[in-house]
Design goal:
eleven-stranded mixed beta sheet, globular
Length: 485
Amino acid sequence: MSGDDMSPGGTSPDDASPDSPSPDDAHDPAAAGDPGETAVQIAARVGSGVCPPDAAVARTLRRIDARDHELGAFRRVRAEEALREARGLADRADLARLPLAGVPVAVKDVLAVTGESVRFGSAATSAAPEAADHALVARLRAAGAVIVGLTAVPELCIFPTTDSSFGITRNPWDRSRTPGGSSGGSGAAVSAGMVPVAHGTDGLGSIRIPSADCGLFGIKPGRHLLPGDGGADSWYGMSESGPMATTVADAALMLSVLAGDPGLAHPEPAAGLRIGVSAGTPSPVTRLASSLADALEQVADTLLRAGHQVARARVPYPRNPLGLLARWTRGPAGQARTLDRRMLAPRTRTHTAIGDAVERWGLVKDSYAQRIEQDMRALFADFDIVATPTLLRTAPAAARWSDRRWLPNAVSSIRYASYPGIWNVLGWPAASVPAGVHPGDGMPIGVQLAGPPGSEATILALAAEIESLRPWPRTAPDYAGGVRH
């Protein structure tokens, strides 16, 4: 199967089955609704020799085959390749020491994977296969991970809903809703229990938005923690790669591999943190839904009872949002310079044309980010971590947003997902933590935790504490054999 040949679910039943199923697979309940093992559990079983690497991957491929036809999480499933690579892992002498031994991982369709094309959700990009792995993919493979597929994104990863010329991606919690974006395919794949962990990128919330929409934990690390070139593909330093997972432990493990820092896999518990809680909106034209504000209050009460110092905070969002909007258009415009823009969706053409003007007129000023950083450092003189809502409302409809004009897309994005972007301008770490479900529509809600440079371990530790005190479902109810409450 070539890089762009797809059945409705991205694979076929024959592709998803190993030649000789292991006895360990005999009672696999994939199609019946099962969240599967965590990445930590898979690595432990494979590393100890209890489970062959190809058995773990075969189970994942069966889940993808059973579930993705109705979700569209994957642009490309690497069924045959993943099984072959998993079998090769069994010969590694260091298998027992690999942190991600045999763990099936999905990679967002923005990183080079040897032999695969990188499409960025766009028909204007090249279908030619890549000759080498991106540095982060190489780190995942070196740690024993098996890349099972490339996940769907909106064109050039611009908007917080996931649809493109390759199809519409749907939310496992409610298939009439989007899983968010731009890492929407990764969010849907993890939330439906198809893979335990997935890679995402976050340029203005693109890990945190789908994590909130899909009931997951996802973290955007701070600038320079992971290897990257800071060019147009990373939106000139605004975008960072990071993990999306059903548990904090899985995300911490994957982040430790991406960062080359084993210590991040087991962050020390953080006691007595000074936590600022802010429900203020980033703009006077936005409004926070009351249920999402209530969820933030409930998390704050939990942290207060756990012994942390919790107080109200006012996040100094910039009064003029044009500096952030300029950066939002400039990054994709840089990516589009080598593309035939006639092949882009109309909203993308408009977005990149605005970005061209932003670049031409020099509207991206370092002073803008410097003023925000000065104000934020004053805030963090009083707090270790700041908690805000992740989103202003729950997920919008799954639709052909790419067929709509630019302005309705931009307005919807601002009214729905304005909280995350400021942390990308700063390049500081931030994460989304599941915080319950909306009492009306049953959709998941996220709370954002953000901190100063170098606070990734603190964010992970605090998120793990929230998880222990306020456990969340590992997958969407329809994919866990359970009933939505």
